[in-house]
């Protein structure tokens, strides 16, 4: 198993999501429009935690909205921090949003061009929409109901068409397109995500099995490893995070809170073994919500490297069936 992979445990790309950093400055200025010094301060914190790669999560800086000059400034400040831009994650910008789908499609194209200019390997897009008011008020937004996709009325065909358009664009500039799984969207289950990837064309698009987005829901969900097994043949990028999940069969109560990957309820040791056996060779992106998210993400990175150290070792290879 180990000998077939292009990386070692030490150099496998594991990017830090920029989720812990706010979208606006204390003065209320969007970080996208803020001075370069604002970007540099956040990137310095990421580098200090030992990261070499970042995912430019666009809840922080929207690279797809930057002018060429500002994009060059972003590239320079990333390099000065000793980091690489491994990916851009375009979130809450669904290309089938009933109100803003066409706008979001145009923005996603610009994000792909920005990713290519920054030297990224992949762009991750999803079909999740902006949080509703009740979600913004909740301590954990996933505990309140959000928008839902409907496959009827041409929505499925529109998703296939627009995501295929993005995938072809990404391929033309030498980067991958990955579809992020998210609740109550057309990417809201393993079966639906695989069906969508097949419809678009698995040779031009991959899946980002961010199954933490489903596992955290306060409802019945497909077991983590069963969902992952369905997605792995299509996986080209992987947002990873974990949750403590409590289920009370007597009352039907389900609760979840964010957790470090090492101690959460999702079995990433088994998940990583299955991914490597399936031939996964893409980048990881570590995420975490709440508290000191950056520190937890750093510990998640170290945990992944620890697991990779064994799974890519001769001992693991000799023990493979």
Structural write-up:
With 321 residues, this protein is of the alpha/beta class. The protein has one domain: Divalent-metal-dependent TIM barrel enzymes (TIM Barrel, Alpha-Beta Barrel), CATH 3.20.20.150. It is 39% helix and 14% strand. It contains eleven helices and ten strands. It is globular, with a radius of gyration of 19 Å. The mean pLDDT is 96.
Topology overview:
Blueprint: E1 14-17, H1 36-48, E2 53-55, H2 68-80, E3 84-90, H3 101-118, E4 122-125, H4 133-137, H5 155-172, E5 176-180, H6 190-200, E6 206-208, H7 212-215, H8 224-231, E7 238-240, E8 242-248, E9 253-259, H9 268-277, E10 284-286, H10 293-311, H11 314-319
